[in-house]
Specification:
Blueprint lengths: L16 E5 L4 H12 L3 E6 L7 H9 L4 E4 L5 H10 L4 E4 L6 H6 L1 H21 L4 E7 L22 H19 L4 E7 L1 E3 L18 H9 L6 E4 L11 E2 L1 E3 H17 L4 E5 L5 E2 H12 L5 E4 L14 H7 L7 H13 L1 H11 L1
Parallel strand pairs: 1-2, 1-4, 2-3, 4-5, 5-6, 6-11, 7-10, 8-13
Antiparallel strand pairs: 9-12
The structure holds nicotinamide-adenine-dinucleotide and uridine-diphosphate-N-acetylglucosamine.
The site of nicotinamide-adenine-dinucleotide has 27 residues, from helix 1, helix 5 and strand 5.
Length: about 350
């Protein structure tokens, strides 16, 4: 197939075609919407291991057309077919498993999927001379012994296999960038993404009982779960509960657009924190959710969760100064959008799951 015959959905002059591995997932779907809105052509390659093809229709409902393929990012041959069909200028690599607890129980599953998906993607990118990749990393790489706020120059270290897959992937990208002058990986270390698209069409749809705070609160509010367990109120924090940097998923998605723009004009590897720079305690999140949505969240205090740090929030000055990006949405908006999603499409999806 020659290049002229390749399919493109890009709209803007000078905009590019971007491959989103794992683009049907929570963060990928929101990023797809922002990219389409900015005129980029979006191609999704997802094996739907933690999402569904229906998400593609909802992205199109929120933003416009894209191309989507049921492809495992670890399968070089299948990925090559996608690169043959489209003139892919850059990749945003979301594909991977993300449940910390499961990674402790099944470490090989995590190492295999997360490393294979990145390595295969990089090999195919090299074959097709695509030099830019935006990689989804995590604040978890700052480990447990750092002082807040976390900045990109700090030492890294992990406490679980999921975190190690992120650190090893970062190292792979660093090594390839050293070996190949044109290669430009931009590593984004996300803090705590929460909330949902304000259209109500997209959001997080965790399978089973959620591990993370906001989705758990959502399901307590809807009555699916009886009460929230607050993991410890004896931390050295303002009210004794753990502090995190919650960031609205739409702000996070916009950070990817900025990272792509940055990568168009620079060469070599860069690392950026994507957070708000503000920390809220578990109690503050519970209160914010109650106030924003007029609901009650029953809770009990239980023991600390193993591996949790007291405080985690980002130094966001690098992203602000270099990318020109800053999170804008408030905790109240995060809570409101999360609740709209929980009550709308998500509850329908869950009912369908139970009906099967
Ligand atoms: P998600 O599970 O909703 O999305 C990941 C998507 O990747 C899913 O659609 C899944 O089906 C797909 N996938 C998994 N393995 C694949 C493979 N081998 N090939 C193709 N598709 C595959 O997760 P998310 O919250 O959107 O996270 C996206 C990325 O960001 C992940 O790499 C995750 O580790 C990272 N991250 C997430 C958070 C968070 O709190 N959500 C925080 C830090 C980093
Ligand atoms: C989790 C992941 C981490 C990932 C991060 C960002 C774990 C162990 N860690 O961490 O790898 O980078 O999300 O997505 O899963 N809490 C409760 N009750 C609950 C759930 C959580 O009190 O039912 C508390 C936690 O103790 C913590 C805060 O709420 O203080 C946030 O927890 P969570 O949403 O799981 O995020 P992280 O702990 O930051």
């Amino acid at each position: 197939m020659n290049i002229l015959a390749k399919q493109s959905f890009r709209k803007g002059n000078g905009a590019m075609d971007i491959l989103l591995t794992g683009g049907a997932g929570y963060i990928g779907s929101h990023t797809a919407v922002e990219l389409i809105n900015e005129g980029y052509g979006v191609i999704v390659a997802d094996n739907y291991s933690n999402s569904s093809p229906e998400v593609i229709k909802r992205i199109e409902g929120a933003a416009g057309r894209l191309a989507a393929y049921d492809v495992d990012a670890g399968n070089e041959e299948r990925l090559q077919q996608v690169f043959l069909k489209h003139q892919i200028d850059a990749v945003v690599h979301f594909a991977g498993y993300k449940a910390v607890g499961e990674s402790v129980q099944q470490p090989l599953k995590y190492y295999e999927n997360n490393l294979r998906a990145l390595i295969a993607t990089l090999k195919v990118m090299k074959d097709f001379r695509a030099n830019t990749i935006i990689f989804s990393s995590s604040a978890t790489v700052y480990g447990t012994s750092q002082a807040v706020p976390f900045d990109e120059g700090m030492d890294t270290g992990c406490t679980n296999p999921y975190g190690w897959t992120k650190l090893i992937c970062e190292q792979i990208l660093r090594d390839v960038a050293k070996a190949e002058e044109e290669f430009t990986p931009v590593i984004l270390r996300y803090f705590n993404p929460v909330g949902a698209h304000e259209s109500g069409l997209l959001g997080e749809n965790p399978k089973g009982i959620p591990n993370n705070l906001m989705p758990y609160i959502q399901q307590v509010a809807s009555g699916k779960l009886e009460k929230l367990s607050i993991f410890g109120n004896d931390y050295d924090t303002k009210d004794g509960t753990g502090i995190r940097d919650y960031i609205h998923v739409v702000d996070l998605a916009k950070g990817h657009v900025k990272a792509l723009q940055y990568a168009q004009e620079h060469r070599g590897m860069e690392v950026f924190n994507l957070g708000t720079g503000k920390g809220y305690s578990v109690m503050e999140v519970v209160e914010a959710f109650e106030q924003a949505n007029g609901v009650k969240i029953p809770y009990q205090i239980t023991a600390r969760r193993k591996g949790d740090v007291a405080e985690s929030y980002a130094d966001v000055s690098k992203a602000r100064n270099v990318l020109g990006w800053e999170a804008e949405k408030t905790l109240e908006q995060m809570c409101r959008d999360a609740w709209r999603w929980e009550n709308g499409v998500r509850s329908r999806l869950e009912n369908e799951q139970f009906a099967i």
